[in-house]
Each structure stands twice: as structure tokens, then as C-alpha cells.
Amino acid sequence: MRITFIGGGTMGEAMVRRLLSRKLIAPGDITVSDVSQLRRGLLSREYGVNTLADNREAIKDADLIILAVKPQDLAQVMGEIKNPAPQQVVLSIVAGASLSTLQRGLNYPYIIRAMPNMPAQIGEGMIVWTATAEVGQKQKEIAQSVLGALGEEIYVDGEKYLDMATALSGSGPAYVFLFVEALIDAGVHIGLPRSIAEKLAIQTIIGSTHMVQKTGKHPAELRSMVTSPGGTTTEALLQLEKGNFRSLLLEAVAAAYNKAKHL
Residue 86: what pLDDT? Predict the structure, then answer.
């Protein structure tokens, strides 16, 4: 399998790094096309992959073409690589670019669209993806292996779910980072040294998440197990409920979803 990345930025590099570290592909079978000579030099030195400045030339021998460019650069890129060779598959991770937009812009039917989130950069991502009806099972399996190198992946039949995933898992890391930040600040507020507050907050988030994942219990059940009647946790949760914590989070995700639909 030969893969060409159009765009060697943060996410493109992360995908290259993960594919190589998982030994799913050899460096010589990866080509990265990027407008920046500095990026091309860095990727070539660091990973031993082929690099080019010409997008059309870069996709010539590719089985899988991965679009990893900024949304504002997509139209130009699609014009440059329009009408790929038969049976090449295009996988786009460009935010907000629908399957229909990609099909029209490329004049090509074999399109896969994926929504990776930020933790994909360290192999702990959540990737939701879908494909046009023309994409075959073998091509989907190739895409699944590539996306699986970034973390957990879920295939969905309806493209509408990608906008929902954008609001929940795509933007989700920002919600979590904000919560961790606030938890650390709360620890400092009550008198903990910041270094200790950071350690306590981060490990508490990691451990609690793993509890949900590994026990299979509903989060409400686990929360109940921590919450003693009349205890400290009960008092803290009461304050969160007074502040409409649940409703605010729901409204935040809904707002992100509505924004995603209109991008």
C-alpha cells in the first residue's frame, strides 16, 4: 500500500508518525506533499518519507490519498488533484468539508471522510468516519487500519453523525481541558501547591475515565458509589447542580453541533 498525504502539518505528521510506529507501512511507501520547504525537510529527515511540493505529482502512485490541509486551502488542492486515477481512494480529515463538496471538487466518487480529534496526535484519539456508496469493503478496511493507528475508530453510515461527533469528541478535548484547568485552580484556591493540585486533578480524571471504561458500569452508578449521604461529595455535587453544570454542558455541545452543521 502506498499513501500520499496532501498536507504535512500537525495532524498529517501525527498520522505519519503513528503509521510508522505501528509498522503498518514503510517510510518509502509514504509521500508527503506540502507547500513549506521547511516542513518537507523536517518530515524527510525525521521519518525518512518521500516529500514533494507538487500535489499532482505526489498522488501519481498512491493507493490512498489523505487530505490533511486547512479548510481554506482545500479548494485549491482539489483543483490541483482533480480526477484521481481509478480505484485510488481519497480520505479527507478536513474540518467541515462534506462528502458532496469533496466529490464535486475532485470530480471523483471514491471518498472517505473522517473526524479525528486532538488526542489522535498521541494515538489516543476518537475518530468517526464514513464513506460514499462507491467505496468498497476492501478500501474501507484499508481506511480502518490507517485510522485505527490514531486511536479508537467508529464507522457510521450517515454523514450527519460526523457533525455530531465534531461537537462531542472533536471539540470534547477542549471541554475536558477546561474542566481539568478549573479543578487544578480549585485545588490551589483551597491551599494546595499547584504542582500537587495538577497531579491530583490529572490522575483523578485518568483514573475515573478508566473506571467507566473498564468496569462497564454506568457513570451514574459509579458516581453513586463515591457519593456518601451527607458527605463531602454530596455537598460538592449540590453546588454543581445549583450552577446547572449538566444543562450548561448539554447546551455547549448542542451549540457546537449547530455551528458544525453550518460550517
Answer: 85
In a domain, 163, yes or no: no
- Between CA 258 and CA 260 the distance in angstroms is 5
CB count, 10 Å around CB of 12?
Answer: 22
The number of C-alpha atoms within 13 Å of 111 and in the hemisphere containing its C-beta is 23
Q: pTM of this prediction?
A: 0.91
> Could you say which DSSP state residue 132 is in?
-
Query: How far, in Å, CA of 199 to CA of 72, rounded?
Result: 39
Mark whether 194 and 149 lie in a shared domain.
no
pLDDT tens per residue across span 181-218: 999 999 999 999 999 999 999 999 999 999 999 999 99
- The answer for 48, left when phi > 0, alpha when psi is -120 to 50, beta otherwise, is left
Same domain, 82 and 197: no
- DSSP secondary-structure letter at 125? E
6 phi and psi, to 5 degrees? -100, 100
